[in-house]
Design the sequence.
């Protein structure tokens, strides 16, 4: 008989309690029964868990339904386990291609010569599968953001320091506006990623915490006696070596998500910097134009006054002098402000 009983989600609470008594040999807590009977994914933040209920383990694991989605949804796997048997309930998201019946068959296989309980292997394999999918999702996000950053900002490694970016403060306004426009297009996706990152990090961190506690052999997440009262660890020392390896992979995955967070933050910082520089450049441009127009206007106004004793009024070259002053001052200001990239 298979050590895994996959629920069809049509069982009543009474039927599920009877299955627990007959298949696991334990009395399921009503809370565990309610979780196993859940038929749809709720809108709450996914929260993996693994805890001991007297003589069995209760767990909930979230697996990205499609790890290539930038904003992943999750399949929810709920289980109760004794040493040799597991009852499992699955709620698949509409985007999920996973065939869980086939996966559970693979998860139930135990390597020959390994004396670890079958349920321990099952829990390890489902946590390992979740970690692999979460890692694929994290790497996909990192690659997407790195590619977009390269496309927009050039050959710049944003993971080192934002100071490595092009010196956008000295870009001309059209170039700056082009970069800002491209960053704003990316910001729609980036904003959505910012919104879902807490959910992704919560799933990743709680899964990692479960693996850490199993690696450290914490008592609240292990069974030390089977149903017959025999001393027997659900997660043997041999199995804990595999758990430690999976835990290391989950830590790497957490680090990748940290890089994604850092990259998103720096992209927003660069967009804000460009926006502030463009706003400042607009102010400088307006000031430059005002200055360019002010002095010629002053000269015209000065010599437009009706005074008969102004020396330049009767000067033979007065008219040319005024034009020369206007042109010289204007050209000087245009050259000055262009060198300073104000216009």
Sequence:
């Amino acid at each position: 008989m298979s050590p895994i009983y996959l629920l069809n989600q049509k069982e009543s609470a009474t039927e599920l309690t009877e299955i627990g008594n007959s298949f696991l040999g334990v009395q399921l807590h009503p809370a565990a029964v309610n979780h196993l009977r859940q038929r749809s994914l709720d809108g709450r933040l996914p929260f993996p868990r693994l805890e001991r209920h007297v003589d069995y383990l209760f767990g909930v694991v979230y697996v990205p339904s499609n790890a290539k989605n930038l904003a992943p949804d999750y399949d929810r796997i709920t289980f109760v386990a004794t040493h040799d048997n597991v009852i499992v309930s699955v709620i698949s998201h509409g985007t999920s291609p996973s065939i869980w019946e086939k996966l559970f068959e693979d998860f139930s296989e135990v390597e020959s010569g390994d004396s670890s309980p079958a349920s321990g292997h099952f829990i390890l394999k489902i946590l390992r599968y979740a970690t692999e999918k979460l890692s694929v999702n994290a790497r996909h996000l990192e690659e997407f953001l790195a590619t977009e950053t390269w496309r927009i900002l050039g050959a710049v490694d944003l993971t080192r320091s934002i100071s490595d970016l092009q010196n956008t403060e000295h870009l001309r306004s059209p170039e700056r506006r082009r970069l800002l426009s491209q960053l704003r297009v990316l910001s729609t996706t980036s904003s959505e990623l910012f919104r879902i990152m807490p959910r992704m990090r919560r799933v990743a961190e709680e899964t990692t915490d479960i693996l850490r506690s199993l690696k450290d052999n914490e008592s609240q997440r292990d069974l030390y006696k089977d149903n017959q009262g025999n001393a027997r660890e659900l997660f043997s020392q041999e199995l804990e070596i595999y758990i430690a390896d999976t835990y290391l992979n989950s830590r790497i995955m957490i680090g990748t998500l940290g890089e994604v967070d850092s990259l998103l933050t720096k992209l927003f910082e660069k967009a804000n910097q460009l926006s502030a520089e463009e706003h400042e450049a607009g102010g400088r441009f307006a000031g430059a134009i005002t200055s360019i127009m002010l002095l010629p206007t002053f000269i015209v106004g000065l010599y437009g006054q009706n005074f008969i004793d102004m020396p330049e009024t009767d000067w033979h070259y007065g008219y040319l002098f005024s034009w020369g002053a206007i042109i010289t001052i204007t050209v000087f200001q245009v050259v000055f402000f262009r060198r300073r990239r104000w216009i």
Observations:
- Helices lie at 13-24, 30-36, 100-107, 118-153, 173-215, 237-303, 318-339.
- The longest strand covers residues 56-64.
- The beta strands are 4-6, 49-53, 56-64, 74-81, 86-91.
- The chain is about 55% helix and 10% strand.
